[in-house]
Amino acid sequence: MTDSAEADAGGGDGGGAVVSLGDGWESGGCGRRPEDGAAKGVVAAFGQTMKTLRLREGLDRAEFGNRIGYSAATVASFEQGRRIPSPRTIERADEVLRAEGLLCLWKEEVERAQYPVFFQGMAVLEKEAVELVSYDTILVKGLLQTEEYMRALLGMRRPLLDDGTIEQRVASRLARRAIFDRSPAPFLCFVLDESILHRPYGGKAVLRGQLEHLLLIGQQRNVQIQIMPIDREDNAGVNGPFTVVRRKDGKTFVYAEAQGIGSLQTDPELATLAAARCGIIRSQALSPRESLNLIEGVLGSL
Question: What is the secondary structure of 47-102 as a DSSP string?
Answer without folding.
Answer: HHHHHHHHHHTT--HHHHHHHHT--HHHHHHHHTTSSB--HHHHHHHHHHTT-TTT
